[in-house]
Amino acid sequence: MVPTSKSVDGGRPPGAGKPVGARIALVERIAGWSVRHRGVAIGGWLALVAVAFLAGMVVEGPDARTSDPGDTGRAQAVLNEQEGFDPIRESVLVQAREPGGAAFADDPELRRAADDLVAALNGTGGAAIGVRSPTAPDGADLISADGRSALVTFEVAGPAERVRANFKAAVDAVDATAQRYPDLRVAQAGDRSLTTAVDQIVKDDLNRSHLLSLPIVLIILVLVFGSLVAASIPVLLTLTGVLATFSLLQVIGKVIPINSAVSSLILLIGIAVGVDYSLFYLRRYREERLAGRDGDAALRVTARTSGHVVVVSGLTVMLCLTGLLFTELDAFRGLTVGTVLVVGLAMIASVTVLPAAVALLGDRVDKLRVPLLGRGRVTASESRIWSAIVRRVVRRPALWGGGAALALVVMALPVLNIHLQDAAVVNSLPRSVVAVDNAVRMQEAFPGAPTPTRVVVWREDGSAASTPEIMAAVDELRDRTAADGAIHDPIAVAQVDRALVLRVPISGSGTDETTNRALEELRTQLLPETLGRVDGVDYAVSGKSAQIYDFTQRISERTPLVFGFVLLLAFVLLVVAFRSLAIPLVSIVLNLLAIGAACGVVTWIFQYGNLEPVFGFTSYGGVMDWLPLFIFVILFGLSMDYHIFILSRVRERLATTGNARAAISAGIESSAGVVTSAAVIMTAVFAVFIALTAIENKQLGIGMAVAVILDATVVRGVLLPAAMSLLGERAWTLPGWLRWFPGGERHRTSPVSGPSREPAQV
Q1: What is the pLDDT of residue 349?
Q2: How far, in Å, are 42, 389, 594, 652, 721 from residue 572 at the CA level?
Q3: Nearest by Cα to 501 from 537, 468, 453, 463
Q4: Which residues touch 13 (CB under 8 Å, ≥6 apart)?
Q5: Which end of the chain has fewer CB atoms within 10 angstroms, the N or the C?
Q6: Is Membrane there in the keyword field (predicted)?
């Protein structure tokens, strides 16, 4: 049980007078209503979750289609207008397992395997169509440049509802042939094979993130609170909030595209934020109970302080995330909607359901204490380690602040040579995935064949594109293929209603500079010199390589806009929250230092291939093109949790003592334990990404985990107190030309001692 003492006037100690800001704030009124109507508040939350869950189950219909940027989006739009079915194309590599064998034309077993495979595919009852053989008279383009490998190509028959069954029948035929020739490599890769592998990995990773994140969070919360009941409250609130989020996304996904690949990210951000908000609230409630206030008074003060911080932090996170909308990319649009929704629900639960649950439980919130932890963890004491560090920093701020800033700058140095490059499927997933290994081997023998670029061709008057003039231009394009050129054999042609789809293998790994140069040559030279000379014809280039290229171009174009929006927004929000000019400017600089250092660590590890065995990846010489932008937006939002929480404590102490340096020490010391616990939880949650399969998840996990660690330790524990100590009272002043900003009254100091005064709202 939390020890208490009697108080008067609803929990305010005698002689305190009215608290600063006697006008009851909105958050406090909401929390007060929830406490008085605790059954309605808890029941209403559960009803919201139930309605969201039922809506996700009941609402039916097709999910919204993702629209890609640039030329890729044009090609997709044209295909969406066609009545026909764009067939899925697969290729099967046939080669000797041992290198240096006989040429395909001279090896009877290789030719026999190819013929048997063709017969097996033709015997699938129409599941595989358009089968091409390297032994056929027109199959010369299906033999590799060195003559030692061959391809058998085919299309998976439609319609769409039969694709899954037809694909399985084709795979079974390939597998059966491979088993009959154990000394040969019969390896399938293509549109469906790689997509299926990626989808399965995403599904497995999502399940793994579920299994890893929640137990880790629960263990940490038990260590923090020392009580199973107290630890279970944040977990239950977070679980219900996440359930409601994903249920609502099932409905929203009918209108706004929600990429399944972002589900893990939405889940882990929801867990991190939801648990952190509950932690801020519960720890403050304990402190107020230990200060002698009864339950109702403690909840009022908690709502006025930590509840207000949670709302400001939640709104800041959500508004910062909206900066991603400036990219006008569907992938980021869905991610923004999902994360804003999960953060918003976590914020609402923390200021409504949480105080109701605490009021309902009372002192039972500390029941089921863990042996050896329970009694010590019920109290909320200051951190001795951080107290010692902060006091040294405040005494010599220039030395400590300068040293910490220099350390972050050194960590950020690798960013100067960062090479932003998205990972192709063969770079993203390990070669232990069969489809990836097959694609890598096929890529070596037939560059671009596993994931060829698609060229969509149509006539501007809407008539069929399969005219003699267009087919002649396609033949001319085929003549431009070369082993050392931009495009390669085999070029496949498929008619989709009134349009044509050309599958053109290009040089490179799929996302590297060689690929980009080949794609630019295809778009700016080869196609204009062939199809571009046919009157009344238009075309657009799509496919995996083109999609990534156009995506990267859009990010490069819009990144300055996103950065500017988030920086301006953070500045305005902090000016309004603290009525200060120095605090927003210092906060922005410190955040940029932490982000730069985190990106530097990611660059050093993944671009330069350091610690590959430790984290289980193979470097492809780059960093995901969207990662710095994403870390910037997410960290700027999430770091406000710690920042606003710490500064609110500092301001409370400053309002009662009038001594800036003493307030800095006391405020950071009293909040260090909560911030450390919250940072450990958030770091552990993001570290789950490191255990996932795809390299982009590993990069994101390390980047965000390092950023959170630096933000909660070096930035908030050293740089922030150093900067505020150097600024002194000037940190809390607002120039006259900015006093038109909305917000609370300007900071006042008072000589009244801390224990006899309720904390003021920030």
Answers
A1: 95
A2: 35, 31, 20, 22, 22
A3: 453
A4: 7, 292, 755, 756
A5: N
A6: yes
Element (H, E) at 469: helix 468-479
Angle (CA) 732-281-338 rounded to 5° is 95
- Closest by Cα among 475, 586, 465 to 536: 465
Q: Over 70: is that where the pLDDT of 720 sits?
A: yes
Average pLDDT, the chain: 86
Q: What is the DSSP letter of 606?
A: I
* Type of residue at 462: G
Is the distance from CB of 504 to CB of 453 less than 8 angstroms? Answer: yes
Q: Label residues 340-375 b or e (16+ Cβ within 10 Å = b).
A: bbbbbbbbbbbbbbbbbbbbebeeebbeebeeeebe
Residue identified by tokens 């999502």 is 206
The overall longest dimension of the chain from CA atoms, in Å, is: 101
Backbone phi, then psi, for 136, in 5-degree steps? -75, 160
pLDDT bracket for residue 120 (50, 70, 90): very high
Give the pLDDT confidence score for residue 200 in this predicted structure: 85
Query: What is the model's pLDDT at position 440?
Result: 92
Q: DSSP assignment, residue 618?
A: -
pLDDT tens digits, 461-473: 989 998 999 999 9
User: pTM, whole model, 2 decimals?
Assistant: 0.84
Name the token pair of 414: 């690798």
pLDDT at 237 over 90: yes
Task: List strands edge to edge, sheet with 499-504.
Answer: 492-496, 499-504, 453-459, 537-542
Is residue 53 classed exposed, middle or buried when 0-12, 13-18 and 19+ CB atoms within 10 A define those classes? middle
pLDDT at 217: 82
Three-state SS annotation for 637-679:
HHHHHHHHHHHHHHHHHHHHHCCHHHHHHHHHHHHHHHHHHHH
Token pair recorded at residue 441: 């081997």
Record the tokens describing residue 463, joined without a space: 């008539």
